[in-house]
């Protein structure tokens, strides 16, 4: 006689049917059977939940909303990753150099730097990169491609982050705030340079005279003092200057 069991709903299922369901579950885990098919593109999945998430590609449904900025996402884990932009959380830490990342794949790619592995090679100049997206950005040097366009003034850029920085010229956005004095800046590197006013740090040191500077551009201008050849000449009186701005001030004396 066939052995029977009761399911949660109270109906009777024979043991052979239960065994068959267990077998199907195992087959799904192994990826050998995908019984859930998308009725739009016919792609198949081993689990119903994966099909539900997939269909949002077709419907455009994004049920997971960020409560900070309002941006929406089709998957809960994508929202979790996004919120790290606001919180600054970087849970994935490199055990070699200590650098942290917001996403596990960023850490995986970063570790190629330590391994010295650079599998992506430019077929034009031969330079190699640890990441495919770095190679893509690099190749724009050769092609001159600038795929990122400002929708306000039409100016184009080779990198998306350059476009983001540029648009702050139009919006006036200054997202980088000094935690000491409260002054705000449009670019992160400007904030870093500014904070040296408070800390007194001067990381740029002239190896000729020993003078130190907090700003790289000031250091570059200073080094021209040590160059023997004078670059800037007044076309009115012939007087020479080491710096362009000194020549400009001098020429005011002729007006």
CATH topology of the largest domain: Double Stranded RNA Binding Domain
Q: What strand line-up does the widest sheet have? A: 1-2
Q: Termini separation (Å)?
A: 114 Å
Helix segment count?
A: 9
Biggest sheet: strands, sense, closure?
A: 2 strands, antiparallel
* Rg calc: 30 Å
The rough form would be described as elongated
Q: Give, in order, the helices and strands.
A: EEHEEHEEHEEHEEHEEHEEHEEHEEH
* CATH class assignment of the largest domain: Alpha Beta
Task: Indicate the percent of residues in helices.
Answer: 40-55%
CATH level-two architecture of the largest domain: 2-Layer Sandwich
Per CATH, the superfamily of the largest domain is: Classic Zinc Finger
Number of strands: 18
What does this structure look like?
Strand 5 and strand 6 (72-73) form a beta hairpin. The protein contains 9 helices and 18 strands. With 255 residues, it is α+β, with helices and mostly antiparallel strands. The strands form 9 sheets. It has a two-stranded antiparallel ribbon with strand order 1-2. It is elongated and about 85 Å long.
Tags for this model:
18 strands, 255 residues, two-stranded antiparallel sheet, 9 helices, Double Stranded RNA Binding Domain, 41% helix, alpha+beta, 4 domains, disordered N terminus
How do you describe this structure in short?
This protein is of the alpha+beta class.
Please render the helix and strand layout as text.
Blueprint lengths: L3 E3 L5 E3 H16 L5 E2 L6 E2 L2 H12 L4 E2 L6 E2 L2 H12 L4 E2 L6 E2 L2 H12 L4 E2 L6 E2 L2 H12 L4 E2 L6 E2 L2 H12 L4 E2 L6 E2 L2 H12 L4 E2 L6 E2 L2 H8 L8 E2 L6 E2 L2 H8 L4
Antiparallel strand pairs: 1-2, 3-4, 5-6, 7-8, 9-10, 11-12, 13-14, 15-16, 17-18
GO molecular function, one term: zinc ion binding
Keywords: DNA-binding, Metal-binding, Nucleus, Repeat, Zinc, Zinc-finger
Pfam family, one: zf-C2H2_4
């Amino acid at each position: 006689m066939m052995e029977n069991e009761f399911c949660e709903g109270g109906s009777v299922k024979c043991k052979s049917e239960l065994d068959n369901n267990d077998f199907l579950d195992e087959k799904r885990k192994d990826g050998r059977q995908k019984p859930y098919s998308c009725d739009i593109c016919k792609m198949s999945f081993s689990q119903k939940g994966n099909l539900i998430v997939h269909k949002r590609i077709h419907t455009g449904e994004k049920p997971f909303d960020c409560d900070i900025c309002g941006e929406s996402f089709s998957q809960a884990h994508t929202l979790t990753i996004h919120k790290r932009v606001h919180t600054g959380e970087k849970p994935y830490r490199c055990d070699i150099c200590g650098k942290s990342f917001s996403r596990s794949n960023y850490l995986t790619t970063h570790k190629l730097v330590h391994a010295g592995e650079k599998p992506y090679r430019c077929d034009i100049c031969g330079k190699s990169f640890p990441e495919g997206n770095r190679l893509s950005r690099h190749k724009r040097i050769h092609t001159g491609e600038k795929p990122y366009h400002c929708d306000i003034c039409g100016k184009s850029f080779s990198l998306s982050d350059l476009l983001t920085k540029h648009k702050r010229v139009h919006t006036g956005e200054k997202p980088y705030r000094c935690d000491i004095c409260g002054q705000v800046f449009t670019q992160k590197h400007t904030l870093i340079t500014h904070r040296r006013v408070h800390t007194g740090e001067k990381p740029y040191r002239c190896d000729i005279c020993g003078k130190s500077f907090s700003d790289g551009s000031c250091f570059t201008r200073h080094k021209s003092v040590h160059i023997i050849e004078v670059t800037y000449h007044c076309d009115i009186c012939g007087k020479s200057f080491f710096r362009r701005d000194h020549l400009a001030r001098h020429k005011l004396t002729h007006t």
